[in-house]
Amino acid sequence: MIVTSSSIKTPPPPHPPNPWAASQNPNNSFLPINRRSLLSALTISTTTTPFANSFLNPMSAQEVAFARGLFQMPPVRLTNRYFLVRAGESEYESIGVINTNPVAKTSVDNGLSEKGKKQAVRSAFDLKEMGACDKNCWIWPSITQRAYQAAEIIASVNGVSRSYIVPEYSFLDARGLGAYEGKNLEAVSEVYASDTLSPTIKPPPIDDGTPNESVSDVLVRVIQLMSILETQYSEDTVIIVSPDSDNLTILQAGIIGLDLRRHRELSFAPGEVRFVDTNSVPTYKQPASAVYKCLKPPNCN
């Protein structure tokens, strides 16, 4: 006898209707979600989602170390390359007169002198030789006339579009010297003598609107500038063009951790260019007492 079997399987009987569900929702209308069901659903989703741990667990120590926060001096790291440039000599400087009142910063007299134009051209070629703009760059000059003129020369020599010149309206103003406004440039030595005693000493005030800024005041401004640059750009090249030396020396002193009372040691000549290389600058070591003692001010050597 030949026995044959059929490959067709009998489908399972359908589940009997749930009379409780039908009675609870006879018209298949929307039922409100109760609190217990919602909490249960959330618990299941967070335990089964593959990314749940990354949201629920705190950041690791390494992640915290590399997270961006408020810019501080000295910085933990710099995300951009920086070149510091002092603008060339101004018309006021050519006649030996101190002019730091921001009201006059865009005047023609605050522009580059003939000597200053040559210094600006030299700084532009120095930047080109250093390869500052080989992969494009941003130029951040003070809106002070001589600094912006220097930025235009730098852009022209290095083939940078004018759209990459970003004028800075306040954080890069020349340091306000108060009552020294209008005096001979040689009088600045008195300000620097005070700087060696304390970074909080201000020049004497004046009532013509010229600010009298201490080293600490300038430090606040350059920190604000660096906070913007480090937030706005990443792995870019930024050329900072300042109308005076103090902005740059205080900025560099803060970056390398040098005592701010010694910022004058980093003085910039008109038209000088300097690359900010934190790895090549030796770390400044404070005295063991952590107190700078000066027995015969202003001669503190």
UniProtKB/TrEMBL annotation:
Record SUPFAM superfamilies: Phosphoglycerate mutase-like
InterPro entries (alphabetical): His_Pase_superF_clade-1, His_PPase_superfam
Span list, region Disordered: 1-27
Positions annotated to bind substrate: 86-99, 146
Bias-annotated ranges (Pro residues): 10-19
Signal peptide range in chain numbering: none
Superkingdom field: Eukaryota
Name assigned to this protein: Uncharacterized protein LOC110766921
